[in-house]
Design brief:
By secondary structure, the chain is of the alpha/beta class. About 45% of the residues lie in helices and about 15% in strands.
């Protein structure tokens, strides 16, 4: 099976044929940094990190451009409410996003441009669109610049909407300077107390949609392979990007991939609903690699409705995988990942990144591996462990990889191991004198502290269990 993706624009699953053989260019709408990230934000980063890794496994050289929107109405409003400069909000939250991406194992992007660093490119794009009749300066003296949606016949194609059925853009306080309420703002004229930049049309600041059109084409070219983002960005953001970029003569993205939303009790996760789950809170509930497993296990286009129970089930499922790999290493020593993943895993991933089906293959291997451990079949254990590591590595979930070896709890593992060893020695002493009640109490106390003890033929072993 060839590598195929569901393309939002055509609403079909299409074979992936890149512009340049052996290369894949990917633009991902990154963070608008008005607040620290919750898992709804980071799901997109994890999903597209899996895509990137699978493209790399399939032999592609991947260029990933993931932007940062560091100027926006929400950022300015947050800064006003806190009484600090707008850039302080942006800097603080961008660092939080970078930490969240890193702790969940997302590879750094090839380039991570900031909107405020690309105003010259935005001015050039606006000038091109005004000269071609697709954009205009507001007639009310505000300094706003708008895109004329009626000038672009395909407007609405991505979101499958008709122009006559659309409401006004609602991106300005008044539509007095617009020719049509549905026209959207590319540039917003300067207001007192807000940051602004010089342009031929007066001082002001960029609109959200303009930023991504300018940055994507600067780093990936006028036409590139894949544009990604959350399903909530299809309209108006991605629709407007297409209008701007193709209106300026660019081919723009050839494939549009959108990840599903992460909800709580059926509602989109957001700060305004008070149901956001921030990353530092989440990695106290489960290990970072387990949180990545939770976010990656569902098909990227599906909706995930968050619950603690579902999170802990995912963590337990991953612990079954990592537990097999740990026991395999104890029996046969270090096992390197296999050179290739099993065919059924590859087929699942090639079919629009069906990670859920791929992980089913992983769990089948773990089941067979546990049976081989029981039988003492060392060669079979080594073979299955190598395959499991290869599959996990292809999606960034190999617990023995260098990436995870220095993350999460591992920095404290030697200290914890020494402390647990003292408790286990006391437990063994209690069992030796047949004081089983005391031995059980020690084991229960360790479990209450999040440390699960398993008795094996080679002696007791332990691992962290959260939730």
């Amino acid at each position: 099976m060839s590598l195929r993706f569901y393309d939002t624009r055509t609403r079909t699953v299409r074979d992936f044929t890149p512009l340049r053989e052996g290369c894949a260019s990917l633009y991902l709408c990154g963070a608008t940094v008005q607040a620290p990230p919750h898992i709804g934000h980071i799901r997109s980063g994890v999903n597209f990190d899996v895509l990137r890794r699978w493209l790399m496994y399939r032999g592609y050289s991947v260029t990933l451009c993931r932007n940062v929107t560091d100027i926006d109405d929400k950022i300015i409003n947050t800064a006003h409410s806190e009484g600090v400069p707008w850039w302080e909000i942006s800097e603080r939250n961008q660092r939080a996003f970078t930490h969240a991406y890193d702790i969940l194992g997302c590879l750094p992007p090839t380039v991570e441009p900031r909107a405020t660093g690309h105003v010259p490119e935005m001015i050039e794009l606006m000038r091109t669109l005004i000269d071609s009749g697709h954009a205009y300066e507001a007639g009310d003296g505000s300094g706003d610049v708008y895109f004329d949606v009626r000038s672009f016949p395909d407007y609405g194609a991505l979101s499958n909407q008709r122009l006559e059925q659309m409401r006004g853009a609602g991106d300005t306080d008044t539509d007095s300077g617009k020719r049509d309420p549905r026209d959207f703002a590319m540039w917003k004229g300067a207001r007192p107390g807000e940051p602004s930049w010089d342009t031929p049309w007066g001082r002001g600041r960029p609109g959200w949609h303009l930023e991504c059109s300018a940055m994507s084409t600067k780093y990936l070219g006028g036409t590139f392979d894949i544009h990604g983002g959350g399903l909530d960005l299809v309209f108006p953001h991605h629709e407007n990007e297409i209008a701007q970029s193709q209106g300026a003569g660019h081919g723009f993205a050839r494939y549009w991939l959108h990840n599903g939303l992460l909800t709580t009790s059926g509602e989109k996760m957001s700060k305004s609903f008070g149901n956001s789950l921030l990353i530092p809170q989440m990695v106290r509930k489960v290990r970072p690699i387990e949180l990545r497993y939770y976010l990656a296990q569902a098909h990227y286009r599906s909706t995930i409705d968050y619950s603690d129970e579902a999170l802990y089930e995912a963590a337990a499922a991953f612990q079954r995988i990592s537990g097999f790999l740990t026991r395999a290493a104890e029996m046969v020593g270090t096992v390197e990942p296999a050179a290739e993943v099993p065919e059924e895993f590859a087929a699942a991933m090639d079919d629009d990144l069906s990670v859920s089906q791929g992980l089913a293959v992983v769990h089948n291997h773990v089941r067979d591996g546990n049976a081989a451990l029981t039988d003492g079949a060392k060669d079979r254990v080594a073979e299955l462990a190598a395959r499991v590591r290869a599959m996990l590595g292809a999606v960034g979930l190999d617990p023995f990889s260098e990436q995870w070896a220095g993350s999460g709890d591992s920095g404290l593992r030697e200290v914890v191991d020494a402390l647990v060893s003292v408790a286990l020695e006391q437990r063994q002493a209690a069992r030796s004198r047949k004081d089983y009640a005391a031995a059980d109490e020690i084991r229960d106390q360790l479990l209450a502290a999040g440390i699960a003890v398993e008795d094996t033929p080679r002696g007791p072993r332990w691992e962290l269990r959260r939730g």
